[in-house]
């Protein structure tokens, strides 16, 4: 049972009212700070807050009538009092941390809750994986709301192999687990929604019938006639905004526009112009992270970093705080509980030093308890143990050899034209490019200096033996190098990228032997990050995982891959619903205006050398 209880407001009314009128002492009082009132958009000096248990009983200039002998008092003079920050769209698995370690990492940064789409572990372990994440989240101090994954798989079994499959029945079951199962996770199969695919429509219907909300993921252009079609399904939030127009069009259709600043997706600087330049009403604008690595959490931060960044783009500080608190809570229908420092709300409160624009969090209160101070956790709780089933998910019962990466060309020697995946730095999308590639002895040749690598996917869930090999450019390796990893959105099969077949095989086999994770092998050395929980997360402490994550990044950079947060960018190259082209265990998948379909690697035969 969690030490950090969050009872329903109805169950707390007698105690809250008694405390507010002075008949019962408060358990905690925060006294004499400047309140960041995100409801009114004001900064109000000389304010105090009285807390009873997990909820706020009184907010005002004078709370002396609520103080008793046992009341804990926190002096806030010279500091700001603000609601705890909320992340409106986040995948905890992308940090490679467990929920427990994630909480320990972000609570000192002022993040007291979030809306978490666990579709990574769901694609590996199905409902069992989602339930494990939910149960672990309930042990932490965070207001952790889970979404049931909408895309398991992200497309369908003809295009990729996953460890599980969700439909309307699974969605309905998961949403019955409690009020902290908040809605349907990002619906990435937007073509399926627009063109009436039965399963996707059924999942949305199951969500709406449960009284929950559905999140979106629409990557066609904002002026595409199909965005209103997508909105007509009942999807009311979307984080795939990369321009101010993307934000504007979603808001105009009644959706919430989520502006993302992840480790590898840097969209806030552009999207925030919908506020700073277009002057649109900000009540349906949200700040989110989507994906942040443990390395980024350590070096930059989490929502504190995103709010500070938005302020740096010209957003008023109180407006930026609204985008990470009350707007987010209202989007998910839980503003009565979280998102503001108001009577009756759960006492998720942060204290900030210095200028508000600097977002310097000095203390974090979660569910009425001081849990972090001066950047350090001071609260503790029991750990969570994952079952053996979650620790043994890489089912590849063979040794991978260099020959498995051979690409048989349509010509014996010379050149041929091929479809190549082109990486786009700091963006989720890729480009499909046609390249003339060299052929020797009937096989495509890659190597340092060619800006051409092989990319391979090996199915690891069901022992099908499926594998595919294609080509990718934009990696930047300048020496023989390879990376293998089981973090490969969203099917999370074994993904291998490199320009040396022997190194690719070695890296792949090492990942298999350690039951998941990432390995980089190059002429400059090796780096290892074990991720035994579903092949996605580590049971190790936050600092240790962040160090391993940095080791992977450093190894890639030494090999010549200078992409910002390369690991995260590369992990998306198998995500079969993001334009324009990806690789699954079944082959190359193209995503265009006409939908999603398989395409051949080679496009034409050119003249052979004689």
UniProtKB/TrEMBL annotation:
Gene3D superfamilies: Metal-dependent hydrolases, Urease, subunit C, domain 1. InterPro entries: Adenine_deam (IPR006679), Adenine_deam_C (IPR026912), Amidohydro-rel (IPR006680), Metal-dep_hydrolase_composite (IPR011059), Metal_Hydrolase (IPR032466). Its cofactor is Mn(2+). SUPFAM superfamilies: Composite domain of metallo-dependent hydrolases, Metallo-dependent hydrolases. Residues 80-370 form the Amidohydrolase-related domain. GO terms for molecular function: adenine deaminase activity. The keyword Hydrolase applies. Keywords: Hydrolase, Manganese. Its EC number is 3.5.4.2. It is an enzyme of class 3 (hydrolase). NCBIfam families: ade. Belongs to the metallo-dependent hydrolases superfamily. Adenine deaminase family. This is Adenine deaminase. It comes from Paenibacillus terreus. The gene is ade.
